[in-house]
Specification:
alpha+beta; single chain
Length: 204
């Protein structure tokens, strides 16, 4: 995780919120992703090409399964309101959400977690956030399925059955495995771990 320095444009008599600081960082550094989890700012630089390529290809099995029509949508980069603190929100890389998600806006372009059937993250340099910090946050939000494409350790993690502080079931999958996700997302989706991890690596 890297954070850019931010000049404070706020008046001394105005309370400075984390949300205001997050907005300032994003305004000054286009492409950066800023999240607030557990009362802390998480700042992630713009993703590399391999990260973006992996997300594009990952959308395909979800769309082919019919999850982007009817009762659900497959989206990238939308805000997820978190119950962990008053200003907390995350911006998962990829989500499967109920089709009426826009009716459940909480604030700051973040939506009620009740609409989220799955969240998926592709790790970057700040991979510990996805493997630790967000595990606890998404579990607290009762996100039923959390998938992590772990480029650091060449694994695909599937976490299900959220409990306080984590997930009751957390299974890492290695290249060579085919992983079928829980039916609770709304359709049968099978992921080829080797193919996903290969796509997520930088070429050359």
């Amino acid at each position: 995780m890297s954070a850019a320095a931010v000049e404070q444009p706020f008046h001394d008599d105005e309370p400075v919120t984390l949300t205001a600081i997050a907005d300032e960082i994003m305004e000054r550094h286009p492409g950066y992703r800023v999240e607030i989890i557990g009362g802390y700012l998480l700042v992630t630089p713009a993703p590399d090409v391999a990260h973006a390529r992996a997300l594009t290809k990952l959308m395909r099995p979800f769309i082919d399964a019919g999850l982007d029509d009817g009762e659900t949508e497959v989206l990238q980069g939308i805000g997820l309101w978190l119950p962990t603190d008053s200003e907390d929100y995350a911006i998962p890389d990829l989500v499967v959400v109920d089709a009426d998600v826009e009716d459940h806006l909480v604030e700051n372009n973040a939506y009620d977690p009740v609409c989220f059937r799955l969240v998926l993250e592709v790790t970057s340099k700040n991979w510990k956030n996805d493997l630790k910090t967000k595990v606890a946050a998404y579990a607290e939000a009762r996100i039923p399925v959390y998938v992590i494409v772990d480029r650091k350790h060449s694994r695909l993690h599937v976490l299900t059955d959220p409990v306080d502080g984590g997930y009751e079931n957390h299974r890492p999958h290695a290249p060579g495995e085919l992983v079928t996700l829980p039916d609770s997302i709304g359709a049968k989706v099978t992921l080829d771990v080797e193919q996903i991890l290969r796509t997520a690596q930088k070429k050359g």
